[in-house]
Write a structure and sequence with these properties.
Elements: H1 3-8, H2 19-34, H3 38-42, H4 71-85, E1 98-111, E2 114-126, E3 131-137, H5 145-153, E4 163-168, H6 180-191, H7 198-210, H8 217-229, E5 233-240, E6 246-254, E7 259-265, E8 272-279, E9 292-304
Antiparallel strand pairs: 1-2, 1-9, 2-3, 3-4, 5-6, 6-7, 7-8, 8-9
Length: 311
């Protein structure tokens, strides 16, 4: 989908930004680039409905602490790891260069008794000398009629700014081992003790390392190998991202918060196409099972020679 068509799907009928809205936007940014707890990261990605074409989920098998996840998911992830190893390594950024990423996203904002979903387009410029984030937001969408009524009762407060930008700190290549055994141990150690549990946090950390990071082919392959070993990882099957690209999806269902985190990959390039969060029965918000409460689709990337430029 062309940029103009993407933006035309977002009805920018929002008034000027309030101080409260700016503070929320800044908080989202800082959580994203600063390594926030997983519960904070999950709230970054929220939407009204999903476009995944879900296939059957295979039966779970017995697992050891470093065994396979779902057998079908493990096979798919290891195949993707093999593809990742064959990809060309990105060249190191020179001083003054930036790695650019564009995403179609939606974030959740909320107040007392209501939540609203703000679809938007996000652009990142990241480099060794610093970078910038620029976001454009569309008209909020309410997950349920009850959310909208509570928002009206609250006086129709502003949900999102129309547009927001901020500088971000310098970024550098990820300092993570590319040996799958060492990487598994490192990610497991970081996830142990997390409030939502070690396994769902490991899956989240794998996603964090894949998105908008410029990870090397060797590291991407190792990350897929780690995901294949996480007990409880499921194969969703053939999927489409939000701009219609075909891929395959795997997921982890977090039984504590009743939410499924899905990652969609391109089988041919091993690229992460997008991710979504889907509510399950018993979720704290009481939303119907299958409600998508988060997404980010990575639509373009490249290297540019100045901040603000596009490939």
């Amino acid at each position: 989908m062309a940029d103009l068509e993407l933006l035309r799907t977002l009805p920018f009928e929002v008034t000027g930004p309030s101080n409260e809205a700016r503070a929320r936007a800044r908080g989202r940014l800082l959580r994203h680039i600063g390594g926030a707890p997983a519960t904070g990261r999950r709230r970054l990605l929220v939407a009204a409905a999903g476009l995944l074409t879900a296939g059957a989920i295979g039966a779970l098998i017995g697992l050891s602490s470093q065994g396979s996840g779902n057998a079908a998911a493990a096979r798919v992830l290891r195949n993707i790891a093999t593809v990742a190893r064959t990809q060309e390594a990105p060249k190191p950024l020179k001083r003054g260069q930036f790695r650019y990423t564009k995403s179609v996203v939606a974030f959740m904002s909320g107040g007392k008794g209501w939540n609203a979903l703000s679809p938007g387009v996000r652009e990142f410029w990241m480099g060794p000398t610093g970078g910038r984030i620029h976001e454009r937001w569309g008209k909020p969408v309410f997950p349920t009629a009850a959310d909208r009524q509570a928002w009206i009762a609250a006086g129709r407060p502003q949900v999102s700014t129309r547009e927001d930008s901020a500088n971000i700190p310098p970024t550098h290549p990820l300092a993570m081992p590319t040996d799958p055994d060492k990487l598994y141990a490192a990610i497991n150690d970081r996830a142990v003790g997390h409030g939502n549990g070690t396994r769902p946090e490991m899956f989240t950390l794998v996603g964090d390392a894949l998105r908008e990071t410029g990870a090397s082919p060797a590291l991407r392959a190792a990350l897929y190998e780690v995901a294949a070993r996480i007990p409880g990882v499921q194969l969703i099957g053939p999927a489409k991202d939000r701009i219609g690209r075909r891929g395959v999806a795997v997921a982890y269902a977090d039984g504590k918060i009743h939410e499924r985190h899905e990652l969609i990959f391109d089988r041919r390039t091993a690229a992460l196409l997008g991710e979504e969060y889907v509510q399950l029965d018993g979720n704290p918000s009481g939303y119907p099972a299958g409600t998508v409460t988060g997404y980010s689709t990575y639509v373009a990337s490249g290297v540019v020679n100045r901040r603000g430029a596009r490939p």
